[in-house]
Design goal:
49% strand, 302 residues, 5 helices, 16-stranded antiparallel sheet, mainly beta
């Protein structure tokens, strides 16, 4: 369960990189597999059939907003098998100047609640600095505290030279001795980091039945991620309302091979804001869900 929460918390904040965090599940690639919907969400159908739209009135997908909204803060609560385990948030905090470029400063946080912290304390904070014009990351910072695991790193992106420079800030002396403190990784053009991809997907045009391909940097490597636009539907969130949503399924590829590691489904509002309302992550340890808090919906649904 500890591993399931670690994967779920990261995926909650970094939706576009969720597929990387999935764990192996037999027959995960089967397009006909049916999964039971979690109790946190009530839907018109009792189950979710991937790749099939429910028999509803067609929903129009609005054009996305052209850029990020400073001040937007989205908060989520996470559950494992229906049990509350923690909270997370993502925020477009401000615009700063970085290397003579204007950049959105985005902050993502996740932490375990009191119950989970008794045996698996978790506190993750990530920062992404996204070029205001090009909408790709200039700098990424990560601080992870998950059980006994610790990680502190900074990554800078040179999109002209197509190089990401990774720098470890923890156990520096040891890593310098091993030659692992600073690394340069080749990257494709306009790669995203695990947090910026969360926003990049929200700014892309989406059409049911199509797929988007996004390159994502994570853990000193470059990954290609396919995001399938499965369908549109009306989703009811308890005590939050009914929303027209777009169903997305991120699928990561590693070294050219599809990694069958469970399944992720994300629901975005079909309006111009593309707010991520909920995420389901099926793992061998059970279902992990992240659902938006009511307060985060106030600016969208006054």
């Amino acid at each position: 369960m500890q591993t399931a929460w670690r994967y779920g918390s990261v995926s909650l904040l970094l939706i576009g990189c969720a597929a990387q965090a999935l764990t192996r599940l037999p027959n995960a690639s089967s397009g006909n597999r049916t999964w039971s919907a979690p109790a946190a969400l009530k839907e018109p159908t009792a189950q979710l059939q991937f790749g099939q739209a429910p028999p509803e009135q067609p929903i129009t997908i609005a054009s996305p907003r052209p850029t990020l909204q400073v001040g937007e803060r989205l908060q989520y609560h996470a559950r494992w098998m229906g049990i509350p385990v923690g909270e997370g948030s993502v925020e477009v905090k401000e615009i700063v100047t970085l290397n003579d470029r204007q950049a959105f400063h985005i902050v993502g946080e996740a932490h375990s609640n009191r119950w989970l912290s008794r045996f698996y304390p978790l506190k993750d904070i990530v920062h992404s600095y996204v070029d205001v014009e090009a909408l790709h990351p200039l700098r990424f910072e990560k601080s992870q505290r998950e059980g006994h695991y610790r990680s502190e790193e900074v990554v800078t992106f040179d999109h002209t030279a197509q190089i990401a420079t990774y720098e470890s800030l923890i156990n520096r002396a040891i890593k310098e001795h091993l030659g692992e403190a600073i690394k340069q990784i080749p990257i494709p053009v306009h790669i995203q980091d695990p947090l910026s991809v969360f926003y990049a997907l929200r700014l892309r045009p989406l059409e049911v039945g199509t797929s988007l391909n996004v390159d994502v940097y994570s853990d000193e490597k470059s990954y290609r991620m396919e995001v399938k636009v499965l369908d549109t539907r009306r989703l009811e969130l308890r005590r939050r309302g009914v929303f027209d949503v777009i169903t997305l399924e991120p699928i990561a590829t590693f070294k050219g091979l599809l990694v069958e590691r469970g399944r992720v489904v994300v629901y975005l509002t079909a309006d111009e804001w593309r707010i991520p309302l909920a995420i389901y992550i099926w793992t061998p340890w059970g279902l992990v869900t992240g659902v938006i808090e009511r307060a985060s919906l106030q600016p969208i649904r006054p």
